């Protein structure tokens, strides 16, 4: 026995037993477990999201609307690039396994960037910025640290089997938000902002169904299922931290700290 080994003294509890390998569940039963233990509780919690309730109130300011749109814009673009990178790393099975998942990923890449464009359009229609190009350098359109932590974890999923990363992204980080987007489309007081959220319900549902399909069909060993549980738990933890930090970020009034600078092309022309 190794000096620091705990294997012979390791005792399973109700909390740790779900990560034990050696017991493979049927695909549909495992999917039901993931939905019950991870997706549904998170979806219910998101309906109480304080940022959502803030946008539904009359007190929500233009600065707060812009910050929410800017954070969602940055995250959607990054997730679109994430899926594009994943697409390059697909290895098909001997009988063409995962080929249909490749096709699903291609569609999702397009839809993630389209969702980012919805936020761009809302920002411009509301007169928050003059040009789309300013989004890339505006301080309120850069991911806050907790959002970057969630994104980095999802990027790290590229090293894991396809069913695990599908569960982490499609299920854990997208499926719970279907009801959030649906509610946002109804209760957010600014109609332009509300429509940018509500327009995504159908496609977010499709993304969640990609995860359901992959997990049910390909999470077919006890090891994969154990990693899937862990990945879902971690993504939901990072998502919760992102949501709490976003609400705190919205409480800060920073409009007076913005500085007007000369346009980029004018600054560049003087350097030539």
Structure commentary:
The relative contact order is 0.16. By secondary structure, this protein is mostly helical. The chain starts with 26 loop residues before the first helix and ends with a helix. Helices cover 66% and strands 0% of the residues. The protein is globular. The model has no long low-confidence stretch (mean pLDDT 86).
How many distinct helices? 11
**Average pLDDT over all residues:** 86
Largest sheet: none
Low-confidence stretches: none
Strand count: 0
First and last CA, distance: 69 Å
**C-alpha Rg, in Å?**
21 Å
Strand content: under 5%
Helix content: 55-70%
The computed structural class is: mainly alpha
The secondary-structure element order is: HHHHHHHHHHH
What form results from the Cα inertia axes? globular
Top keywords for this entry?
mainly alpha; 272 residues; single chain; 11 helices; globular
Map the helices and strands.
Layout: H1 27-46, H2 50-55, H3 62-88, H4 99-125, H5 145-156, H6 162-174, H7 177-187, H8 191-198, H9 201-218, H10 222-250, H11 264-271
